[in-house]
Design goal:
heterotrimer; A alpha/beta (about 525); B mainly alpha (about 300); C mainly alpha (about 325); A: about 525 residues; Rossmann fold; six-stranded mixed sheet; C: about 325 residues; two-stranded antiparallel ribbon; 14 helices; globular
């Protein structure tokens, strides 16, 4: 039996956010957000990418602190400075990245930091007994002496929840808990969530899975662009209404016109049966010459893994990548990063600071590295300064001096330098993760123009972006990715946000077609 | 701890780890008639006692993902301190020095953020110089009470054996039964997760370097008693030898995996190899070269993602 | 009459800027100046031109080794096997164990250097073992083999060519520093002008980005290690020539000294701010300081303590990643 909470009557606000604001750099993640979570409730938090769901919960989990506004727990204003403090305040978070230590047993993990002991010596029998009791609560049938590295994700999640229960938490935050679970495991989790509610706990449930939202939760809050769009009882909402609340942003900026012959393009890159991991599903798709192809879908659904597998940067299993030159010569692309670059494919990572740019080196140096791509290491590094100047001017990178270190540039200009390195390198295929992350509006449209120009002169571009409007505005063709699979192929001009969301949220293409 | 090869555990033991010393023992018994003599076995025991003690200290640091190259120089320094300071204060002074070295290493790695290899290489160089400064030429007199500790035998079993057993018991106790030991494994596996569970990672790390240096100091006390003199260069081989021994014992230098059993087996394997080469008549210098090759072999089997230091 | 105020001076001469550019020079420059000043006061004999030239000659082998070590450090690696390489070279050349004419022996040594560098590089880049441990183990193996072979056949006299190189002068300038110059100029130019040099800068600035953008990382680090071992061989040539005979002690202090000199010369892990000249100046400074310490009665112990302290302090000044 889970101990019911004595100190909070059902229906009273256990957690309250009051006018909370949070920004990261120039991005406003949460804007004037007020929300209440009641005891004895399962409260779903949902919304598109970048809506602010994770940020909101991270405030409660002690990972970040609000810039302004107040968080109240059990009516008292609190300032949660660290995850440890959150735990002490009775808030238990089960993150998407599991945090059980692989080389410790279940019992040891459950009690890490609070081991029962006599003068420093662990009381193993007591620890084992208490661990078994905790696992009983969550109906997990794992031997407490097993090492966690052998456990399935489902079991690990149950153990994390057990850990929270042991700490007598009143608030549980579950972030996409069913992402890695199969049918029966989801049922078990559902039962557990139900018993938590019966015991008076508050469960915040971040998810995109509409079926689960309606199945498990009693309250739904929808976030969009950092603001609360609305909160409603789950029983009073239909799926359609829910989706409508999530989507519907104006396109805003100007995008360069799409490729008019986008339906009859020659293939530039063909990917067959590539899988980013041993367990994963294999994908196959093509990118056309002159095309900007977009991976759409919710964050963390595998887009990044697929792109990185193609680029040779991330893990990849099996599959074959073939490149067709402008003169129709066909080459198989080797699987190492060096071979991929040699084949004329450039990869632009999401995090330009740690993975893309050489911040301490000059602009000239950064761009020149692209120009040297095809030369052997022994050759002279002949770099036309004038050529770099032209490129920088064409990209509208505003800087006085090529010799400045890249770290002194603004985010938008930095992104352009990274792009410029590849534009100068003569590659004809670009794989781009998040083309305009952390870039101001003005620089965004300049980057779109550059990408379109690259495509128009015969290049092929694959973009993965969590900004739906960007995909809709820029791409000729859209592939919707969900759980590592391509669930839909849409025309870039004809597609709508709603249509993409359906394919992004639905379980299978068949189900999605039923909805439409 | 169960040496199960079917179930994964954190000891790092594999069939090869156990097979190697056993095979060596058997092979040497056949290859050399002198091998199984009491005299020879007792020699081996004496030779590996110090290495075992040092390696156990190295194990503690390796579990949290660190490494300490200054153990050899600390050992040398200890022997010079023992013969240079008045007999009543000798052991205390040596231990204090050991704690100081450990603190410097620990603070350098944890708080100043220096790479463990660089930090301990720097302190190794400094301490080597210091040892030579204190006692340039091997010699000196060791306090009487120490001399007895290392050379007497009880019931025919040499003192070295008891030093070994004592060290192994303390280390096993620390790592398998205490909270401290468990938390070391946690820190080695994932520092961030350990911290999130309320473990003060920085203090534990510093503590590990202190334990390692103090262990090296104890080994130094043992050696100075055994050879009855202070020698500023006696400890030099111990740094790389201890890394070889623990690697051969299945300890992962990246942290989180290792066991006392493994270290014992690795040290015995290394000791048997050295003894074997001796008996067969291979020159001591070739033995050094062979140890170098063994080290390369042992670390080649470790998994690492970084190219460079 | 116009008044010259601080504000009307050209920017380069502004006192604040002069101070800033002086302070941003690697420590080696200031350190050398300070040491020379100190020596003028305490041991003026050391500062005579004759002795200074001798110290320059003595520093040449270190300066050559330093060239290779700084390259390794700039790609975030280290080569501590240089001592072993020099020992082996000294043995090959002076013990007569290989009965070939001197020029052939020199070529054999060069090939040997390439082999050691390749072996180190393979272990570091493909097996991904730590550079420190790999190169220390290599040094152990090389010195073990040389020592044991010396039991059969002791090292002997240095080849005539090398003795000539090590001990003669052109005018008043001894040849060893000229050998250094002959190696320094091509290597420095190569680093500055070639694609390789740009890749080295990139790897040092952001190894992850270098890896992801398709730079031939493994090849660059391999070349760095091969060059380092080759330069160790040349350093050995000069050292053996100048000492006149092979010995079992030769070059033992070079690995750590080269590490210290590189750090003092402004090259730290991943950055080449001191250019190529800084470490060379630091090599001179270090050699001078050892001579100074010896004349003050503090020999090897003092040297070791100083080196250890410098490495630790220099490593803490860098921002941890």
């Amino acid at each position: 039996m889970i101990t019911p909470m004595a100190h909070c009557s059902p229906g009273s606000a256990l957690v309250a956010f009051r006018s909370v604001n949070k920004s990261f750099g120039s991005t406003q993640a949460l804007v004037d957000l007020s929300l209440e979570g009641l005891a004895s409730s399962v409260h779903a938090i949902t919304g598109e990418n970048g809506a602010g769901k994770s940020t909101l919960m991270n405030l409660l989990a002690g990972v970040h602190q609000p810039d302004s506004g107040e968080i109240r727990v059990r009516g008292q204003p609190v300032r949660i400075e660290s995850p440890a403090q959150a735990q002490r305040a009775g808030i238990s978070t089960i993150f998407q990245e599991l945090t059980l230590l692989p080389n410790l047993t279940v019992a040891e993990n459950l009690f890490l930091g609070r081991e029962p002991h006599r003068a420093g010596i662990i009381n193993r029998s007591l620890m084992r007994r208490r661990a078994e009791e905790a696992l009983d609560l969550v109906k997990c049938r794992v031997d407490v002496n097993t090492y966690c590295q052998t456990l399935s994700v489902a079991a690990q999640q149950l153990i994390e929840i057990a850990k929270g229960l042991m700490a007598d938490a009143d608030v549980f935050i579950l972030d996409e808990p069913t992402a890695a679970l199969n049918g029966p495991e989801v049922d078990t989790l559902g039962e557990l969530i139900h018993s938590l509610r019966t015991a008076g706990k508050l469960v915040f449930y971040i998810s995109h899975r509409l079926e689960e939202i309606f199945r498990f939760s009693d309250t739904v809050s929808v976030l969009k662009d950092g603001r609360l769009v609305g909160t409603s009882a789950a029983s009073e909402l239909t799926q359609d209404e829910l989706i409508s609340l999530m989507v519907g942003r104006p396109l805003g900026q100007l995008y360069p016109p799409r490729n008019p012959s986008r339906n009859q393009l020659r293939c530039a890159l063909e990917i067959s049966d590539l899988s980013p991991s041993d367990a994963g599903r294999a994908v196959s798709f093509t990118i056309g010459r002159g095309e900007i192809l977009g991976f759409a879908g919710l964050q963390g659904q595998g887009q990044r893994e697929i792109i990185r597998a193609v680029a040779g940067v991330g893990p990849h299993v099996g599959g074959r990548i073939t490149k067709r030159g402008p003169d129709d010569t066909v080459r198989t692309v080797g699987r190492s990063i060096v071979a991929v670059a040699r084949s004329g494919i450039g990869f632009i990572p999401e995090d330009r600071k740690s993975e893309g740019l050489y911040l301490s080196l000059s602009i000239e140096h950064n761009v020149a590295l692209g120009m040297l791509r095809e030369l052997s290491v022994w050759r002279r590094a002949r770099v036309r300064k004038a050529g770099i100047d032209e490129l920088l001017a064409r990209m509208r990178v505003r800087s006085n001096d090529q010799a400045q270190p890249v770290s002194s540039l603004s985010g938008g200009n930095q992104q352009k330098v990274m792009l410029g390195r590849w534009l100068a390198s003569g590659v004809d295929v670009l794989l781009v993760e998040e083309p305009t992350r952390g870039v101001d509006v003005g620089a965004k449209s300049e980057i779109y123009t550059l990408l379109r120009g690259f495509a128009n002169s015969g290049g092929a571009v694959l973009i993965a972006s969590s900004e739906l409007t960007e995909i809709l505005g820029l791409c000729d063709r859209i592939l919707v990715v969900r759980a590592g699979e391509i669930t839909a192929e849409l025309d870039g001009v004809a597609a709508s946000e709603r249509e993409i969301m359906r394919y992004a949220l639905a379980g299978t293409m068949a189900e999605a077609r039923k909805e439409l | 701890m169960a040496i199960s090869t079917a179930k994964p555990n954190r000891s790092g033991l594999r069939p090869a780890t156990i097979a190697l010393p056993v095979l060596l023992f058997v092979a040497l018994s056949f290859l050399s008639p002198a091998f199984l003599s009491v005299q020879n076995l007792s020699n081996i025991n004496g030779q590996i006692a110090a290495l075992l003690i040092v390696s156990l200290g190295q194990l503690v640091v390796a579990l949290i993902g660190g490494i300490d190259l200054s153990v050899g120089a600390t050992l040398s320094l200890t022997t010079t301190i023992i013969v240079s300071v008045s007999p009543d204060l000798a052991v205390v002074a040596a231990l204090l020095a050991g704690v100081a070295v450990g603190l410097v290493n620990g603070i350098g790695v944890t708080i100043a953020g220096v790479h463990p290899l660089i930090m301990t290489m720097a302190s190794m160089t400094f301490l080597q110089g210091l040892a030579l400064l204190i006692h340039p030429v091997p010699g000196g007199t060791v306090p009487d009470y120490l001399g007895d500790l290392a050379s007497t035998s009880a019931a025919g079993v040499p003192a070295a054996f008891f030093w070994c057993v004592g060290a192994v018991m303390i280390a096993s106790f620390l790592l398998s039964t205490t909270r401290f030991g468990l938390r070391l494994f946690a820190i080695g596996a994932n520092q961030a997760s350990a911290a999130r569970n309320g473990i003060a990672v920085k203090w534990y790390s510093i503590g590990c370097y202190v334990i390692c240096s103090v262990t090296a100091t104890v080994a130094g006390i043992f050696i100075s008693a055994r050879v009855s003199s202070g020698d500023a260069t006696v400890g030099a081989p111990f740094a790389l030898d201890s890394v070889t021994a623990i690697s051969m014992g299945g300890v992962q230098l990246a942290g989180g995996t290792g066991s006392v059993t493994g270290v014992v087996l690795g040290t015995i394997a290394l000791g048997l190899l050295t003894n074997g080469m001796n008996l067969v008549g291979i020159s001591p210098f070739l033995r050094t070269a062979a140890t170098g090759m063994l080290l390369l072999l042992a670390i080649s089997m470790q998994r690492r993602n970084v190219i460079g230091v | 009459m116009s008044e010259m105020t601080i504000h009307s001076l050209p920017r380069a001469f502004h006192p604040l800027n002069i101070t800033r550019s002086f302070l941003s020079l690697p420590f080696a420059y200031a350190g050398t100046a300070a040491l020379l000043a100190f020596a003028c006061v305490t041991r003026p004999a050391l500062v005579s031109p004759v002795l200074l030239l001798l110290i320059v000659r003595q520093a040449a082998p270190l300066a050559i080794t330093v060239l290779g070590q700084s390259l390794c450090m700039r790609v975030l690696s280290l080569d501590l096997s240089v001592g072993g390489v020099i020992l082996a070279v000294s043995y090959i050349l002076t013990s007569g164990i290989l009965k070939y004419p001197e020029p052939v022996l020199l070529i054999i040594c060069i090939l040997f250097g390439v082999a050691v560098g390749t072996a180190n590089a393979f272990l570091i880049t493909r097996i991904r073992a730590s550079s420190v441990i790999v190169t220390l183990a290599t040094a152990l193996i090389l010195s073990g083999v040389v020592f044991s072979l010396s039991q059969l056949r002791a090292p002997g006299e240095a080849p005539a060519i090398l003795r000539y190189v090590g001990q003669t002068r052109i005018g008043i300038v001894p040849i060893p520093p000229l050998v250094w110059l002959a190696l320094f100029v091509p290597v420095a130019l190569f680093l500055r002008m070639s694609v390789f040099g740009r890749y080295v800068d990139a790897i040092g600035a952001n190894p992850r980005a270098a890896l992801m953008s398709g730079i031939p990382y493994v090849r660059v680090v391999t070349i760095a290690h091969i060059l380092s071992s080759l330069l160790a061989v040349f350093s050995g040539f000069v050292l053996i020539g100048f000492v006149g005979a092979g010995s079992l002690d030769i070059g033992r202090d070079l690995p750590l000294s080269s590490l210290v000199a590189v750090i003092l010369g402004g090259v730290t892990f991943g950055s080449g701010k001191g250019g190529s000249l800084g470490p060379a100046v630091a090599a001179f400074m270090l050699t001078f300081s050892f001579n100074l310490l010896t004349s003050l009665g503090i020999g090897e112990p003092g040297r070791l303590m100083l080196q250890g302290a410098i490495i630790a302090l220099a490593a803490t000044r860098r921002n941890p990643d």
